[in-house]
Amino acid sequence: MSEVLGIRGYDFIEFYVGSAKMVAYWYAKAMGLEITGYAGPETGIRDRVSYYLTKNNVKFVITSPVQPSCYEVYGFINRHGDGVKRWAIEVDDVEKAFTYATQNGAVLVERPNRLEDHHGYVEQAAIRLYDDTELVYINRDNFNHIFKPGFCEPRQEINLECEDTGIIGVDHIVGNVRENEMNLWANYFNKTMNFETFVDFKAGDIGTKYSALLSKVVRSADFKIKNPINEPFEGLKKSQIEEYIEQYYGSGVQHIAIATEDIIKSIKALRKNGIEFLNIPSTYYDMLRNRDDLNIEENIDELEEQHILCDKEEEGYLLQLFTKPIGDRPTFFFEFIQRKDGAKGFGKGNFQSLFESIELDQKLRGNLDKSPEELMPPC
Ligand code: FE2
What we know:
The chain is of the alpha+beta class. The protein has helices at 20-29, 71-80, 94-103, 182-193, 240-248, 263-272, 282-289, 300-306, 348-364, 372-375, and strands spanning 7-16, 34-39, 48-55, 58-65, 83-91, 108-117, 120-128, 134-139, 167-176, 196-201, 212-219, 226-233, 252-260, 309-312, 317-322, 333-340. It folds into two domains: 7-139, 2,3-Dihydroxybiphenyl 1,2-Dioxygenase, domain 1, CATH 3.10.180; 167-365, 2,3-Dihydroxybiphenyl 1,2-Dioxygenase, domain 1 (Roll), CATH 3.10.180.10.
C-alpha cells in the first residue's frame, strides 16, 4: 500500500450549530482555540455566519443559519442537533483525489471548483459520507489570507483569555453507523481513498454483560488519516452506539480525537477551562499499577488524578481521555490523546474502559434499557 493521492493530513472540520457566536466562544474559552476569521452578511454571505478557529493544526469552522431560507443548515440541526457536517483532507491535487474517489464509487457532493478573491484562490471538492456528513478535499496553496474567500478578521475584540490547552492537531475522527453499515463504510473509504483496514474489533472484543459494539479502523498509507467506524452489536440492553443513532437521528461523527504533546498538562488546563470528562474508576489504576508489561514515564497517581487512560501498543503506548458529550444531546464528544514512543493503534483496553464509562452515563440518562417494543419477541 502506498500513498498515491497526495494526502497531506487533516484540514478543517465544520460544525453546524444553533448559535455559532456562542459556540465559538465556548471553543475559544474552553478548548483554547483562537477565533481567527469570520464570514457572514458583512462579508457578502447572506444566509449564515461562520467563525473560523485555529490552534496549531486544529482548524474548526462553526456555522449557524441567520435566515429562514438557509434550509441546508436548519435541516441539519433540526434533525441532528449540533454536529459535524463535514471534515476536510488537505491534498496536493483536489482534481486528482476527487477523480480517484468518484471513479471508485464515491458519491459526488461538490465537483472540484475554485473559490476566488483578490487574495488568490482555494480549490475544493466533496464526496458523501454517512447520512448528512461530507468529506472535503481542499488545497489552499494559492490563497494567502484567512481560511477561504469570504472570510475576514474577527469583527469584535472579546476577552478570550484561558488556560493554554496545548492541543496540536487532529489524530482521528470516528463515525457511528447503524447495524450492518460498518463494512459498507470501511469498504467505501478503502476503495475511494486507497485506505486500508488496520484494526478490526469483532464481537466479544469490546462490551459489557449488557451491550457491545463492532469497530473497524481504516487509515491512509502513511497513517495521517485514521478513521474508526463503530456499529452497535446485539446485547441484552441498548448499545451506546444505538443511543447515539437514536439521539442523532442517523449515523454521523461520534468523536474527534485531538492530539497533545503533554496530556497531563492539557487535561489540567481543559478542566480549569470548564470541560467535563468521563470518570474512570480507581480499580482501573490498581490494575495499571499491577501490570508488569507497562513501562511508562508518567506517574500513575497523576494519571489517576486526571482520570487519564493508558494502554500499551505493539510499539509504545497511548494516553487518552474522553469528554462527556459537549452539547445537549448525548451524541458528539472529544477525545484527547498522546501517542508515546511511536504508538499508532487504538488501545483495546482503553476502548473497553471508554465503553464501560459511557454505559454508566447512558444508564443515568435512562437510555440503557430497551423499550418494551424492542423486548417483545418478533411475531
Ligand atoms: Fe478515539
